[in-house]
Amino acid sequence: MNFDFSEDQKFLREEARKFLAAKCTTAHVREVLDDEAKSHHEGLWTEIVEMGWLGTAISEEHGGLGLGMLELCVIAEELGRALAPVPFASTAYFFAEAVKLAGSDEQKAALLPKVADGSVIGCIAASEGSGAVDAAKLSTSFADGKLSGTKVPVTDGDIATHAVVLAKDGSSASLVIVDLTGDGVTRSALSTIEPTRSHAEITFDGAPAELLGGSGEGESLYNEIMNRAAVLLAFEQIGGASRCLEMANEYAKERHAFGRPIGGNQAIKHKLADMYVKNEVGRSNAYYGAWALSTGAAELPEAAAAARLAASDAYWFASKENIQTHGGMGFTWEVDCHLFYRRAKLLAVQAGAPAQWKEKLVRALEIKNAA
Question: Could you say which of 36, 114, 327, 347 is the most buried, measured as most Cβ atoms within 10 Å of its Cβ?
Fold first, then answer.
């Protein structure tokens, strides 16, 4: 049995890598990092939209390419490898998947074509501060078509045009869609460890909103969306971790000390070997998640949690060891190592911290073993 990507999907990966190598160098990433007024790289975003990547997993009926989730996984890996400073994840992994999963025919027809053509930038707003998202403790509320409350932090919330919001709805929770350019919405940008992925605090004061899915289904739908996004984020993380290993390996061959490459030292060899092992474990779990995601398998909760944990561990470790391999120079602003370390730390918590995913994995295994 072959668990690898098809030849067409590998070709897509090669073309995406070529495009990003030319259009998304670390110099482009630093343009956003160094300019507090920039939330993302607008030029790169425009070209990604023109490439049609936002519509990869959106049906042709709704203006997309009609490919599939495996192709989106391929693109996610390349975006992670390039540290793309664009709101792709928020729009394609979270917002579009939420609409595809729970939207009515009218909502899909109204929103998905606009996601595909870039006129809608989406995000998901669930967190209300530190700690895990808890549907039973939400303060943001939805009633009579109006939304009130505060969500923080919201990834790409400062530039998004629309948001999927988890809110209290009577005695339970629901998902609602909000036009962030409309009335009753106030946004303020937040400072984070990774400025190339912007964050915001969003306050709703009677903002018009409409249900996404059924009333009271918010918690279960939110968990399904997180499972989907977790797999896609895992591929971003594996892309970044792979690039960290390449950077460390290249430097270990080029840097000489005492007349020989530092890669000849046993300590450096061990670092590189450990990075490789963790990356391969992360990739294996990401592939498992991709299979479950693309086939609609019942194992998706288990596979998503495993992918999320393994990829988060691999990326953090690779980004850290990349810095260590570069030695004292690795800690400096001029060297690109810190760009990957920042992204690794951010992605590890973007859809919930590792501790939360460990609990999800344990629950998924308990349910599986009890069946």
Answer: 347
CATH 1.20.140.10, domain 219-370, yes or no: yes
End-to-end CA distance of the chain: 26
Residues of the chain with CATH 1.10.540.10: 7-116
Query: How many whole angstroms separate alpha carbon 5 and alpha carbon 74?
Result: 9
pTM over 0.85? The answer is: yes
What is the distance between the alpha carbons of residues 194 and 199, in angstroms, rounded to a whole number? 9
Token output for 371: 């069946």
- For the chain, residues classed under CATH 2.40.110.10 are 122-216
Q: Let me know: does 40 contact 89? Beta carbons within 8 Å.
A: no
pLDDT, tens digit, 9 for 90 and up, residues 178-224 = 999 999 999 999 999 999 999 999 999 999 999 999 999 999 999 99
- C-beta separation of 47 from 91 below 8 A: no
Q: Is the dihedral of CA 239, 245, 247, 249 positive or negative?
A: negative
In what helix (H) or strand (E) does residue 364 lie, and over which residues does it extend?
Answer: helix 354-370
Given the structure tokens 């997309």, which residue do they identify?
A: 64
Q: What is the C-alpha to C-alpha distance for residues 323 and 318, in angstroms, rounded to an integer?
A: 9
Q: What is the pLDDT of residues 115-152, one digit of tens each?
A: 999 999 999 999 998 888 998 899 999 999 999 999 99
Q: Which residues contact 86 (CB under 8 A, 6 or more apart)?
A: 40, 41, 44, 45, 48, 79
Categorise residue 170: left if φ over 0, alpha if ψ from -120 to 50, beta otherwise.
left
199: left (phi over 0), alpha (psi -120 to 50) or beta: beta
Classify domain 7-116 at the CATH topology level: Butyryl-Coa Dehydrogenase, subunit A; domain 1 (1.10.540)
Report residue 93: phi and psi, to 5°: -85, -40
pLDDT at 3: 67
Is-contact 67 55, C-beta < 8 A? Answer: no
The CATH code belonging to domain 122-216 is 2.40.110.10
What totals of helices (H) and strands (E) does the chain contain, helices first?
Answer: 12, 9
178 backbone dihedrals φ, ψ, rounded to 5°: -130, 135
298: left (phi over 0), alpha (psi -120 to 50) or beta: alpha
